[in-house]
């Protein structure tokens, strides 16, 4: 079973920030938080991951709470192309398979 | 190309037919994963290779499913005597060499429809 819980769906207005929450209250000290997204008819796409510090790249920012029990993925200026299912996954960095939950279906509205 | 390539993109099989799905990982990636994704659900792990060695096949749903990677590069997922419940998207992923950040890169998948 997935070790994370996410809301099943969210809406966001185009051009606004999309903030996607994830709870991972049983995360272990050596487990990272990974975010992937899956656009319709495509394979999952890596977005970002982190251990305990906040991370930012060209796609998104990842904010992890100090107790590491939850995190938020931030898409700073959502576009229609960001409409997708977003998966939050916890895993040791050199582990094997990912365990995907149902994710959050983000709809970016014009 | 630079990404993970899967073929065919779509496969229609009659129940009882055998199918073979191919995955070309990113060059130099030693780890390769197969996942099964049913409609409306997240991907579920099937099996994992490191080079040619199949280190984990705990997710294969039955002995009708078989995967191989004989030369540590291209992999084939074979399903024998297909059943309707095998209808799904089959995803392949490869990851960067050991010692680097273990990000998995996914192909677009093969959509299998068993009639």
Question: Explain this structure to me?
Answer:
The complex is a heterodimer of chains A (110) and B (115). By secondary structure, chain A is mostly beta strands. Helix content of chain A is 0%, strand content 47%. In chain A, strands 1-9-8-3-4 form a 5-stranded mixed sheet, with no helix packed on it. The N and C termini of chain A lie far apart (35 Å). The mean pLDDT of chain A is 93. Chain B has 115 residues and is mainly β. In chain B, strands 2, 4, 5, 6, 9, 10 and 11 form a 7-stranded mixed sheet that branches. Chain B has a 4-stranded antiparallel sheet with strand order 1-3-8-7, with no helix packed on it. In chain B, strand 9 and strand 10 form a beta hairpin. Chain B is globular. Chains A and B meet through strand 4 of A and strand 4, strand 5 and strand 10 of B.
């Amino acid at each position: 079973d997935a070790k994370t819980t996410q809301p099943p769906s969210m809406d966001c207005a185009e051009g606004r920030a999309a903030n996607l929450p994830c709870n991972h209250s049983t995360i272990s000290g050596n487990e990272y938080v990974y975010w992937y997204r899956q656009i319709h008819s495509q394979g999952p796409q890596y977005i970002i991951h982190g251990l305990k510090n906040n991370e930012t790249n060209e796609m998104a920012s990842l904010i992890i709470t100090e107790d590491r029990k939850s995190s938020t993925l931030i898409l700073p200026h959502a576009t229609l192309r960001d409409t997708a299912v977003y998966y939050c996954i916890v895993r040791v960095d050199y582990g094997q398979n990912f365990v995907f939950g149902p994710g959050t279906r983000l709809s970016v509205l014009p | 190309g630079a990404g993970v390539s899967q073929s065919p993109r779509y496969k229609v099989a009659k129940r009882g037919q055998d199918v073979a799905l191919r995955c070309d990982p990113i060059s130099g990636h030693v780890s390769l994963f197969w996942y099964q994704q049913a409609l409306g659900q997240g991907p579920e792990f099937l099996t994992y290779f490191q080079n040619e060695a199949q280190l984990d096949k705990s997710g294969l749903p039955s002995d009708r499913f078989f995967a191989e990677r004989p030369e540590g590069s291209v992999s084939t997922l074979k399903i024998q005597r297909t059943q309707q419940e095998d209808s799904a998207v089959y995803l392949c992923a490869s990851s960067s060499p050991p010692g680097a950040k273990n990000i998995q890169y996914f192909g677009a998948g093969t959509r299998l429809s068993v009639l």
